[in-house]
Specification:
InterPro entries: SAS-6_N, SAS-6_N_sf. The chain has helices at 34-37, 44-47, 124-134, 140-156, 198-233, 235-243, 249-257, and strands spanning 3-5, 11-13, 58-71, 84-97, 100-109, 117-123, 161-167, 172-180, 185-195. It has 280 residues and is α+β, with helices and mostly antiparallel strands. α5 packs across α6 (235-243).
Length: 280
């Protein structure tokens, strides 16, 4: 059994058997159970075991966003080539009240590489440095909402809004949100990231593994309940379902959702004061 420990706590098991996240209705008891049987799952108990929440943060945003990943060349003067497009999971965590936050953290993870884990961490004091360096017009309480808006723009309009993550060789990374104005590229916001320590990566992998295992166990139990219900009400339909191969829709939908838009090369050098959020 894999286990993980959080700051200030002892070893805490994440076994699927110990996570009691239940569907809205699990038992089958006659026709009255038909509605709840198809209700959505409640994964609250599973998600609450996320080690990212150990310091009191709460998740305010959790979506996959198309990123262009670039690796920094050893020669700083070498021309920057177009990177690879990959869906990166962006999780924004907030500590404190949204109107008066104490801390904002952004975690980047990848389903293609379980060991990919970068963190952007900022409080009101460190945000002032970003504000001065990038000439931002927003204040710290607005920072989280601006991040959400920009990431959603990259998802909805990938040809107009680009997220470029430059992976440096010293364990650092830089995320640039860039807008394609047709006649030039304008950098909207730049975020500094740091590769997470090995212990944090280990905790995250452990949580993701056991979380997925628990969710699969819940869905398998739900499938057994549905099979039992169909067997009682319509045995011939159950036989037909068991003989029918899975629909091709899932594969087609997956291929569509993972199709990548064309990414145009972006200029390596930045021009001063090009942020549309800068002070005029």
């Amino acid at each position: 059994m894999l286990s993980t420990s959080y700051p200030g706590e002892g070893q805490q098991s994440l076994s699927p058997l110990s996570v009691h996240a239940q569907p809205a209705a699990h038992a089958v008891s006659g026709p009255a159970a038909d509605g709840p049987m198809l209700s959505t799952f409640d994964f609250t108990a599973i998600e609450s075991m996320d080690p990212s929440l150990a310091e009191g943060h709460r998740v305010v945003y959790d979506r996959e966003c198309p990123f262009e990943l670039r690796v920094q060349e050893s020669d700083a003067n070498a021309p920057q080539e177009v990177g690879t497009l990959e869906a990166i999971k962006c999780k924004i965590l907030l500590l404190g009240d949204q109107a008066c936050p104490q801390h904002v953290r952004v975690d980047l993870t990848s389903e293609n590489d379980l060991f990919f884990h970068y963190t952007h961490s900022v409080n009101e004091s460190s945000f002032r440095g970003m504000q001065e360096a990038q000439k931002l017009m927003i204040e710290f309480p607005d920072y989280m909402n601006v991040l959400v808006k920009m990431l959603n723009s990259c998802i909805k309009s990938p040809h107009s809004f680009l997220a470029v993550l430059l992976l440096k060789r010293d364990g650092k990374a830089q995320l640039d949100i860039i807008q394609n104005m047709e006649y030039k590229f304008v950098e909207l916001l730049s975020l500094d990231f740091t590769a997470s320590p090995e212990e944090v990566v280990r905790q995250q992998i452990t949580f993701r593994y056991n979380s997925l295992k628990s969710k699969v166990a819940l869905m398998q139990a739900r499938l057994q309940d549905i099979n039992a219900l169909v067997k009682v009400k319509n045995p011939s339909l159950l036989l037909q379902l068991q003989k029918t191969p899975p629909s091709q829709y899932g594969q087609q939908h997956h291929a569509y959702s993972t199709s990548s838009p064309h990414v145009s090369p972006l200029p390596q050098a930045r021009t001063a004061n090009t942020s549309v959020m800068s002070r005029r």
